[in-house]
Amino acid sequence: MTDAVAFKPESPAREAWRMFRRNIPAMIGVVVLSIIVLATLWGTFFFAGNPYEIVWAPHEAPGVAPEFLLGTDYLGRDIFAGLVTGGGPTLAVGAAAAAITMVIGISLGALAGFYGGWVDNLLMRITEFFQVLPTLLFAMVLVTLFSPTLTTIALAIGVVSWPQTARLTRAEVMKIKELEYVTAARAIGAKNRRIIWQVILPNAAPPLIVSATLTIGVAILFEAGLSFLGLGDPNTMSWGLMIGSNRAYILDAWWPVTFPGLAIFLTVFSVSLIGDGLNDAFNPKLRER
Amino acid sequence: MSALLEIENLRVAFNTRHGEVTALDSVSLTVNAGETLGVVGESGCGKSITALSVMGLIPSPPGRIAGGAIRLAGEDLTRVSEARMRALRGAELAMIFQEPMTSLNPVFTVGDQIAEAIMLHQKVGHAQAFRDAVALLDRVGIPSPDRRARDYPHQLSGGMRQRVMIAMAVSCRPRVLIADEPTTALDVTVQAQIFDLLNEIQRDFGAAIILITHDMGAISEMADRVAVMYAGRVIEEADADDVLDHPQHPYTRGLISCIPALGKGDTELREIPGVVPPLHRLGAGCAFAERCAHRNGRCDSGKPLLVNHGHHPAACHAVQEGRI
């Protein structure tokens, strides 16, 4: 047989991973994020301290007492304890909000892009309606209307940030549905539902994965912003809450605000590095520029 | 005996910014089981639209079947429900596309894609479907099929991919197999292999094949009967040998004289002057008149009908009047 090709099978996902591994900033992002996630897991499940407990004098600087490495806040609570236990809720809200964003955005965007016509018109007008609302204000209204728990905060962030994902998904679906393998799938008798979920969306996955990653970063910032404004869940320690409750004393003590701020910065930054790395891995043409 | 697939007076219209244009006009074709019908014509003649109509895949809107019937073993496909059409697609009607490079889903292995096609129509589990897929890959002449089944489309050459497409198309033993320019994107040597394969498949499975092509060489190799299409109409139809040896319509004559023959000393490639007219500018007369050397007043005033003027049916006033 003349048309046999002999090279090692490599799936598109594997190829992307190979590209990703060579991307040094992205790998730094992976390492930093892994450390943050591991520290958070440790803090959530194994850390014995209580972040709400007043353990020492207020506003003790970092390094003064070896057992309170990062100092204490305005009530004399341990900052380190707050960091490792507050990471869980922060990351969970970020991930949940990103998941909600992706579920709403991908579903509506896929339907609009695939069916077109009046479905597209209706869904896109709804999307535009959400898009023109000032997102932070709208989220604040939602959180204020319902009691600020982690669930409502995640929902509020999800509800205000899906329009972008919907637009991205719609554009991808509209592009892919015209391709020949979609017609070929129809020609073997596949249903619309199957074509959307098993033919079009897997091919639209790369930009959506990138967008999901970046959405996690945005959602974490959002949660921090809400907590900073005093709209976070007051009963759950989170990095945003730490910044929010200590912000009045920032001129007297820099550390109660700086360390959780750094934690947020590092998390969002490493997530963005990973997102960029994924983008490059999925779009080799972009990278070569 | 009535034919397996009968297309009768099919009219397909598209809404465009030039208003409604008729892409297919009173197209009638029949194919019997085990027979290969060649459909020839230049780009834009309605060959692919004919194929998509049979599959029920005319993009709608803007397109619609505006009249006529497509009967598969007596069942009018223009009237059946979408659910019934889906059940027929893949199982009774299958299609091979022009571009094997783009007609396979890039994110799944070819084995999985064939298995999916099998599972859509047969109640079998994935493991069994995958084994069937490997057997089909073996059947279409792919070496070490169990390994290739785990490859992704981009790892295969064009010829291999077209073999995969054929394996997928015949996975449920369809009664009608439509091949829309299956070899256009392939090397000449691979073309011959694909035609051999299609012939073998037809012998084994007894399927009727509709071969859509602009390549008269492919017709002479594959087709039992030929329909020549021009601007959405069938302008000549007969047994392949008759059409090739005694073309009636000036357009068919043109197509055949354009085949370069080796060793005849022709130094120039011949061509038919002009292009297929845009469908929205078709007038009352013969659509080929502008490019025809035998044109007279009658050609501009009325469309010729597909009738037998002696040898076999052709739609041409000049043939009817015995001028050529």
Q: What labels would you give this structure?
A:
heterodimer, A: 289 residues, mainly alpha, 11 helices, elongated, B: 324 residues, alpha/beta, six-stranded mixed β-sheet, four-stranded antiparallel β-sheet, 23% strand
Number of strand elements of chain A? 0
The greatest interface between two protein chains, and residues involved on each side, is: A-B, 28 and 47 residues
Q: In percent, how much strand structure appears in the residues of chain B?
A: 15-25%
Overall mean confidence score, pLDDT of chain A: 86
Largest sheet of chain A, if any? none
> What are the segments of chain B in which pLDDT stays under 50 over at least 5 consecutive residues?
none
Question: Order of SSEs of chain B, N→C?
Answer: EEEHEEHEHHHHEHEHEEHHHEEH
Quick overview of this protein structure:
With 289 residues, chain A is mostly helical.
What does this structure look like?
The complex is a heterodimer of chains A (289) and B (324). Chain A is mainly α. Chain A is 72% helix and 0% strand. Chain A has helices at 12-21, 24-45, 79-115, 117-132, 135-145, 150-176, 180-187, 192-228, 239-246, 255-282, 284-287. The longest helix of chain A has 37 residues, at 79-115. Chain A is elongated, with a radius of gyration of 23 Å. Mean pLDDT of chain A is 86; it is low at 1-7. By secondary structure, chain B is an alpha/beta fold. Chain B has twelve helices and twelve strands. In chain B, the strands form three sheets. In chain B, strands 6-7-8-3-9-10 form a six-stranded mixed sheet, sandwiched between helices. In chain B, strands 2-1-4-5 form a four-stranded antiparallel sheet, covered by helices on one side. In chain B, strands 11-12 form a two-stranded antiparallel ribbon. In chain B, a hairpin with a 4-residue loop joins strand 11 and strand 12 (313-314). In chain B, helix 4 packs across helix 6 (158-169). Chain B is globular, with a radius of gyration of 21 Å. The two termini of chain B are 35 Å apart. Classes of the chains: A mainly alpha (289), B alpha/beta (324). Chains A and B meet through helix 7 and helix 8 of A and helix 2, helix 3, helix 6 and helix 7 of B.
